[in-house]
Design a protein that fits this description.
With 139 residues, the protein is an alpha+beta fold. Strands 3, 4, 6, 8 and 9 form a five-stranded antiparallel β-sheet that branches. The N and C termini lie far apart (43 Å). It has a single domain (3-130), classed as Alpha-Beta Complex (Aldehyde Oxidoreductase, domain 3), CATH 3.90.1170.40. The chain has three helices and nine strands. The protein is elongated and about 50 Å long.
Length: 139
């Protein structure tokens, strides 16, 4: 059964990884997204995440259910609030019978979360504040 959470507390990576361990799974793949300092020539100081929480939880559950219908196990946790450099912002984990499936499903989940789940980031950079990240900055 999937574990899904939006949290304002630091992400406990070891605990979340342990939720994926089971004798039926031969491959566990996790992705941890952290706050990085540099994106090309833009220096980030911190990030604040916000969400339409009810809808974000529904979308995360829908995605987890889709992947778990194949027999895999899913853990999805996204941090909300103000994060400093190197703090974990998102944890995506998939346990599957085979590693190739776990890799593919983990990538699919992370890509889909970024595209469809209503979670936004406000980046506090050295020169200004940006919403949504560098890819959304049209100026």
């Amino acid at each position: 059964m999937a574990y899904i959470a939006l949290t304002k507390e630091p992400i406990d990576i070891l605990d979340l990884n342990q939720r994926l361990v089971d004798a039926q799974y031969g491959g566990i793949v996790t992705f941890v997204g952290t706050v990085r300092e540099w994106t090309d020539d833009i220096q980030t100081q911190s990030i604040s995440y916000s969400a339409y929480e009810t809808m974000a939880e529904k979308e995360l559950k829908r995605l987890a259910d889709e992947v778990e219908a194949t027999g895999s196990r899913v853990v999805l946790v996204h941090r909300l609030g103000h994060l400093e450099l190197t703090e974990a912002a998102v944890f995506v984990g998939v346990a599957s019978a085979h590693r190739a499936t776990a890799f593919k499903q983990c990538a699919y989940l992370m890509d889909t979360i970024k595209e469809h789940v209503p979670i936004w980031k406000e980046e506090f950079d050295t020169d200004r504040t940006r919403w949504g990240g560098i890819a959304d900055d049209k100026n």
